[in-house]
Structures are given as structure tokens and as C-alpha cells.
Specification:
Blueprint (H helix, E strand, L loop, with lengths): L2 E5 L1 H10 L6 H10 L4 E4 L10 H11 L7 E6 L3 H10 L3 E4 L19 H13 L3 E6 L3 H10 L3 E5 L1 H9 L1 H20 L3 E5 L7 H4 L5 E6 L1 H10 L1 H13 L1
Parallel strand pairs: 1-2, 1-8, 2-3, 3-4, 4-5, 5-6, 6-7, 7-8
Family: Belongs to the PNP synthase family.
GO biological process, one term: pyridoxine biosynthetic process
Protein name: Pyridoxine 5'-phosphate synthase
């Protein structure tokens, strides 16, 4: 079964828009865990516009008794303070994601070769600390080859192009999906695990979840947007049911 990791960034976005502590990120994590989710993701950005450094620690402390059943995935760009925090907390997984100035959300995967000197020592340090490393990449052979060369354990395939194609119609979605199938097969042949995320939702996930060798999907915006209307526990169970079908 493909694992679901719920990205709780948007809970922090709502909280920060007003200040204070409501809604609580940890309470959202608790609802997800009680609903049976096997993974939680946070993406603390340098400007702390949603998840803060304290949130990262608070979620870690909440999840500590659930280790072995619920994986903690901390994602972000490999800035020194974030890598230091990940090494200190030792979550199950760290997903390294490129950040472009002024972006609202992630816009692309790593460009092969360009950031080798930045990423290589970070990956080595994380792996030495026992943290599984995933690199956020485009579904392209060159990017996957590069991730394998750097020593990454997994790749996270950037799925916005698939989601946009699916919005245009199922035929376009299927054509885009074939690109991801080829990428997944190549990654698996190189010994890499396969994660995926960005704009996956209840409409397009039924198809994408059939991707060969898919280990995990990370979903935040679509899941939490629907939770406004039906409740967080309900929507988490909807995603878990879809992934178990």
C-alpha cells in the first residue's frame, strides 16, 4: 500500500495569519494520527511563514511515542540551521527541496549537477545520522541519475505537471502519467525509493497511486482545503481508503 504523509503547513498558515496558537499544528497532527495516517510532513521555510522552528520540535515530541508506526518527514532547502535541526531530531526522512526567491510554493525539482557541491555534504551528513534522504526532482532520467550519484535514498517526483495535465482531461493526464511511469521504473532500477507530491488530490490520485514502485505520497493543500468543509479526520480517511483500494 502506498503510504500517505499529510503535510500540515496550511494549518500553520492559518494560525500565523491571525497570530497566537489557533489552529494548533500539533492538534492537527493528532487528528491525522488518530485517523490512521502513517506519515506527517512539515516544510519549515527560512521566513517561517507557516511552519516555525518551534513547530518542528513540537511535532517531533508529539510523534515520539508513535515512532515505528508514523514517519516524520522534514522537508526544505539544505540551509545549515535546518540540516542541524534535522540531525538533532533524526526524523525518519528528510526531503531536500530547492527554493526560489519569491516563490509561494515549490515550483520545480533540483536542476541536475548545478547544486552538487551544496547537496553532497548535506546528504552524507543526514545519512550518517540515520535519516533517510529524498531529493525533490523532475520525472527525468538525468535528474534521477544525479540523485542516485549523490547517494540519495529516494526521489520525490514533482507532480504538478501531471496534475495540470489531468485537469485538462483524463487523456492528457494519462499521457503525462506515462512520463512518471518511465521515471519510476528507472529510479527503481537504480535502487531508489519513490515518493511523489505536489497538487495530488482525490480526483487525480486514483490514477497516480498505480505508479509502479510508489512508496509514499505527500499531500497538504488539497487535503486541508477539503477538510474545511468535511473535517480533517473525514478527509484523511478518504485519502487512506483511496490508497488502500
Amino acid at each position: 500500500m502506498v503510504r500517505l504523509s499529510v503535510n500540515v503547513n496550511k494549518v500553520a498558515t492559518v494560525r500565523n495569519s491571525r497570530g497566537g496558537s489557533v489552529p494548533s499544528v500539533v492538534e492537527a497532527v493528532d487528528v491525522c494520527v488518530r485517523a490512521g495516517v502513517p506519515g506527517i510532513t512539515v516544510h519549515p521555510r527560512e521566513d517561517q511563514r507557516h511552519i516555525t522552528a518551534q513547530d518542528v520540535v513540537d511535532v517531533h515530541e508529539y510523534l515520539a511515542p508513535h515512532r515505528g508506526r508514523v514517519e516524520y518527514n522534514i522537508e526544505g532547502d539544505p540551509r545549515p540551521e535546518l540540516i542541524d535541526r534535522v540531525v538533532e531530531l533524526r526524523p525518519e526522512q528528510c526531503t531536500l527541496v530547492p527554493v526560489r526567491p519569491g516563490e509561494i510554493t515549490s515550483e520545480a525539482g533540483w536542476i541536475p549537477q548545478r547544486d552538487r557541491d551544496l547537496l553532497s555534504p548535506c546528504i552524507a551528513r543526514l545519512k550518517q545520522a540515520g535519516v533517510r534522504v529524498s531529493l525533490f526532482v523532475e520525472p527525468e532520467r538525468a535528474a534521477i541519475d544525479w540523485a542516485a550519484e549523490l547517494g540519495s535514498d529516494r526521489v520525490e517526483l514533482y507532480t504538478e505537471p501531471f496534475a495540470q495535465a489531468y485537469l485538462r482531461g483524463r487523456d492528457d493526464g494519462l499521457r503525462s502519467f506515462e512520463r512518471y511511469v518511465a521515471a519510476a521504473e528507472h529510479a527503481h532500477a537504480l535502487g531508489l525509493g519513490i515518493n511523489a507530491g505536489h497538487d495530488l488530490d482525490l480526483d487525480n490520485l486514483g490514477l497516480f497511486a498505480t505508479l509502479p514502485h510508489l512508496d509514499e505520497v505527500s499531500i497538504g493543500h488539497a487535503l486541508l482545503s477539503r477538510a474545511i468543509f468535511v473535517g480533517l479526520e473525514v478527509v484523511v480517511r478518504e485519502y487512506l481508503e483511496l490508497l488502500s483500494a
